Amino acid sequence: MKSYLAKQGEVAPKWYVIDASGQVLGRLAVKIANVLRGRNKPTYTPHIDTGDFVVVINADKVVVSGNKETDKKYMFYSGYMGNEYYRNVKDFRENRPEFIIEHAVKGMLPKNKLAAAQLKKLKVYAGAEHPHAAQNPIEL
User: Fold this and answer.
1) pLDDT exceeds cutoff 90 at 9
2) Contact by Cβ (8 Å): 109, 34
3) What is the pLDDT of residue 72?
4) How far is CA 83 from the centre of its chain?
5) Residue 122 confidence (pLDDT)
6) By residue range, what is the domain housing residue 18?
7) pLDDT (0 to 100) of residue 1
8) Averaged pLDDT, 40-47
């Protein structure tokens, strides 16, 4: 018996919507990463993008455990000496709450060109509204 390997044209992606309010960040990111990669399908093929689109709403209401709200730091570096700076989860929740989920999901995808294409299928919104109603997303 031969193993089934999906081909690029055979895959028809679906759209899913996830409500992030009250969910733990890491556990939510694992679910999202698996759907983006296609790990939830029987036709999963590691070298082909068999994943689906994911729309995340209420990103500003995601929960982090412990003291991560103030202790977890995101580092940024401008390229100049002495110009590295840090921001915590609280700062991002106020200004750019989409970044928290995008950063967590990006860390759970493989580090290659395929993951870059899969990350483009992630749409994160801070509020409860999203412009992807025409795609008829399914609740995950």
Assistant:
1) no
2) no
3) 94
4) 28
5) 97
6) 14-65+96-139
7) 74
8) 91
In Å, how far are 10, 71, 120 from 105, measured between CA atoms? Answer: 26, 20, 11
Whole-number Cα distances in Å, 96 to 68, 93, 137:
17, 6, 24
Instruction: Output 113-118 pairs: Cβ under 8 A, ≥24 positions apart.
Output: 114/47, 114/49, 117/49, 118/36, 118/37, 118/49, 118/51
Torsion (CA) 86, 76, 104, 138 in degrees, nearest 10: 110
Positive or negative CA dihedral for 102, 104, 107, 109?
negative
For the cut 80, the answer to whether the pLDDT of residue 50 exceeds it is yes
Instruction: Say how many domains are in the chain.
Output: 1
Give the number of other Cβ atoms within 10 Å of residue 34's Cβ.
16
- Residue 33 sits in a domain whose CATH number is 3.90.1180.10
Average pLDDT over residues 1-9: 86
Task: With 0.90 as the threshold, say if the pTM is over it.
Answer: yes
Residue 18 and residue 62 in contact, taking contact as beta carbons nearer than 8 Å:
no
Judge whether 75 lies within some domain: no
Does residue 50 sit in helix, strand or coil? Answer: coil
